Amino acid sequence: MSPDIAVLLLAGVPVVILMVLRVNASLVFMSACLGEVLLRYIGGDATDFANMFLPWLNGNNLKLALLLLPVVLTTVFMMRTVRGGRLMLNILPALGTGLLLALVAVPLLPASFADQVRVSQAWDKLLQLQSLVVGVSALVCLFFLWTQRPKQAHDKHAKHHG
Question: Are 15 and 97 in contact (CB under 8 A)?
């Protein structure tokens, strides 16, 4: 497999899954951010703890699971939550989610595959643009979350005094 195709698959598969399952990609993006925070702050301790009881478990596999657990759970619980015209707008946060997941997951993948990805031009370009990708994606996701709040019912007092 071409290294550039591997990068496109890493970033593209989450986009396809989120769109097909009609999952609110903004929430999945935030879940990926949570997974990265969990990985950063408890990944080492979780690996040490797991090695005591499951010495056969590879540390990077556990870290990858820690990163992806919030993403997978959010995807499962939020299936079919995007409806109508919002589905096409969901592509923007879905793209951000796919790119973020590629950026944070590649270092945890098996070395042979990760090395193949790292030599690709697509990976180099993604690394060059990572600040822009993460920053713009975060702003897009926040905007989508802010605009998707439920419509408020009319004020109850206005109905009684009308």
Answer: yes
Round the CA-based radius of gyration of the chain to a whole number and report it.
19
3-state SS string over 116-161? HHHCCHHHHHHHHCHHHHHHHHHHHHHHHHHHCCCCCCCCHHHHHC
* Alpha-carbon gap, residue 124 to 136, rounded angstroms: 19
Distance separating alpha carbons of residues 36 and 50, to the nearest angstrom:
19
Name the nearest CA neighbour of 9 among 109, 85, 87, 82.
109
User: Which residues, at least 6 apart from 95, have a Cβ–Cβ distance to it below 8 Å?
Assistant: 11, 15, 137
Domain positions in the chain are: 3-148
Mean pLDDT in residue range 93-117: 95
- Residue 32 predicted with pLDDT over 60: yes
Give the predicted TM-score (pTM) of the model. 0.87
Does 157 score more than 70 pLDDT? no
Token output for 149: 């709040």
